[in-house]
């Protein structure tokens, strides 16, 4: 059997990567089933910013407007000091005009609901944690509920600790940045405040980002160097020297809704595909969140796969081309993001002063060049 449209395609993992890939493949005329370990499509992690590159793809997939309506458009990104004094501002309007879409901040629950609705819940199997994957002429997938299925093609979208990657590729070193992160959504009536702006306030060895996701909800994240978390100090204590608005955002968030995680990534790997199996999203190229690009890169994977599947080549050809087209950009993001994370967390007074001064005087054109490189999704798919 070599007609891709008759093949049984299994996507492992129903995060943003798996869901977007399912949508892209469905729209290119293929039958796909997502196998997701969670009992519901329940996103971890408060809010998210879907940048211009991802929104261009959501536009092509027909869900841009729905996502925009459920979130908050962002036209300016500001880096400030801990007191919200501006160090640098990136005006995104140039890119909005160039590519015809906005960056959008949205609750993850809203985004995943929109994608799942488009795919259709009949194509998403929940409570299916993949335990074992055996590759012969096809794939035997065994789940933790003692069921198994046979698939012709497997797409591993099962996140940074991917079972598909571990069992079929045997690769993947997870790197710990020694930075720790809290995330939350706080309810604040900010109808006339901070519209269409995202902020990241840099202190010494710590930073705090916030952005509106609706008129009454603010998504925030706080990151600190592990060395500063003495005696398990709580987040309010750690950020008490930041601007009062920031302290207020933290205090207004229900404590049991605050999510704590380590900031980790996947050391770049050079193989994402093998025959009729491939890896996408965090399973292939998990990055630190410093460029806000992890999920956006998963969306780019989905887009490229959707286009290649449309050409009706063999799965082997599709995956080899996908890897060739996507790897350079994904690795650029992982490596650049890793460096930004180090610079943003300088603790020493002189280093902080020097960093802030350099960021302030950095030519606008250099910043715009980097943003354009990230937002451009012009893949040569022949
Ligand atoms: C603090 C922070 C902020 C971030 N902010 C942004 C941002 O603003 N913009 C952005 O683009 N990115 C951001 N990211 C990155 C983004 O969250 C990830 O890159 C993105 O969620 C990856 O999507 P994914 O679908 O590849 O993997 P995941 O989201 O990890 O999804 C994997 C899915 O697979 C399922 N799964 C796992 N194992 C199995 C198994 N064995 N069997 C079946 N199912 C399984 C999981 O339950 C999950 O649903 C941020 C990350 C962090 C930590």
Write the layout of secondary structure elements.
Layout lengths: L8 E4 L3 H12 L4 E4 L11 E4 L1 H9 L3 H7 L1 E3 L1 E6 L4 E6 L1 H7 L3 E5 H12 L4 E2 L4 E6 L3 E5 L4 E4 L1 E4 L6 H7 L4 E14 L9 E6 L3 E9 L2 E9 L9 H4 L5 H8 L7 E8 L6 E2 L2 E3 L2 H4 L8 H17 L4 H30 L4 H13 L2 H12 L7
Parallel strand pairs: 1-2, 1-12, 2-8, 5-14, 12-19
Antiparallel strand pairs: 3-7, 4-7, 5-6, 9-10, 10-11, 13-16, 13-17, 14-15, 15-16, 18-19
Helix pairs in contact: 1-5, 1-10, 2-10, 10-11
Could you walk me through the main structural features you see in this protein, from its secondary elements to its overall organization?
With 382 residues, this protein is an alpha/beta fold. The protein has a single domain (4-175, 265-375), classed as FAD/NAD(P)-binding domain. Helix content is 37%, strand content 27%. The protein has 13 helices and 19 strands. A 7-stranded mixed beta sheet has the order 6-5-14-15-16-13-17, with helices on both faces. Helix 1 (16-27) packs parallel to helix 10 (294-310) and helix 10 (294-310) runs antiparallel to helix 11 (315-344). The longest helix is centred in the C-terminal third of the chain and has 30 residues, at 315-344. The radius of gyration is 21 Å and the shape is globular. The two termini are 24 Å apart. The model has no long low-confidence stretch (mean pLDDT 92). The structure holds flavin-adenine dinucleotide (FAD). Flavin-adenine dinucleotide (FAD) binds at residues 12-18, 35-38, 45, 48-49, 128-130, 157-159, 163, 181, 183, 221, 261, 281-282, 289, 292-296, 298.
């Amino acid at each position: 059997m070599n007609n891709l449209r008759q093949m049984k395609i299994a996507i492992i993992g129903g995060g943003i990567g798996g869901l977007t890939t399912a949508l892209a493949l469905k729209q290119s005329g293929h039958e796909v089933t997502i196998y997701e370990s969670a009992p519901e499509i329940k996103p971890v992690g408060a809010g998210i910013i879907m940048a211009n590159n991802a929104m261009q793809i959501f536009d092509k997939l027909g869900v841009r407007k729905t996502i925009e309506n459920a979130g908050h458009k962002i036209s300016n990104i500001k880096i400030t000091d801990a007191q919200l004094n501006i160090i640098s501002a990136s005006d995104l309007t140039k890119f909005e005009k160039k590519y015809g879409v906005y960056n959008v901040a949205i609750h993850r629950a809203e985004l995943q609901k929109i994608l799942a609705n488009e795919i259709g819940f009949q194509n998403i199997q929940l409570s299916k944690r993949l335990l074992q994957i055996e590759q012969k002429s096809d794939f035997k997938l065994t789940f933790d509920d003692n069921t198994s299925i046979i698939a012709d093609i497997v797409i591993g979208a099962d996140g940074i600790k991917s079972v598909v990657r571990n069992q079929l590729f045997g690769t993947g070193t997870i790197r710990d940045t020694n930075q720790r992160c809290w995330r939350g959504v706080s309810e604040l009536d900010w109808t006339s405040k901070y519209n269409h702006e995202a902020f990241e306030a840099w202190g010494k060895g710590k930073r705090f980002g916030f952005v509106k996701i609706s008129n009454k909800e603010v998504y925030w994240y706080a990151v600190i160097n592990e060395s500063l978390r003495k005696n398990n100090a709580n987040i309010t204590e750690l950020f008490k020297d930041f601007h009062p608005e920031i302290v207020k955002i933290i205090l207004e968030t229900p404590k049991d809704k605050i999510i704590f995680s380590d900031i980790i990534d996947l050391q770049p790997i050079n193989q994402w595909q093998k025959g009729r199996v491939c890896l996408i999203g965090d399973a292939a190229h998990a990055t630190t969140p410093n460029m806000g690009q992890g999920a956006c890169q998963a969306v780019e994977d989905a887009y490229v796969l959707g286009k290649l599947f449309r050409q009706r080549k063999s799965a082997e050809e599709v995956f080899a081309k996908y890897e060739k087209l996507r790897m350079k950009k994904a690795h650029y993001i992982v490596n650049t993001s890793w460096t930004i994370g180090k610079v943003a967390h300088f603790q020493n007074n002189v280093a902080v002063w020097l960093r802030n001064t350099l960021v302030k005087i950095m030519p606008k054109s250099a910043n715009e060049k980097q943003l354009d490189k990230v937002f451009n999704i012009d893949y040569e798919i022949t």
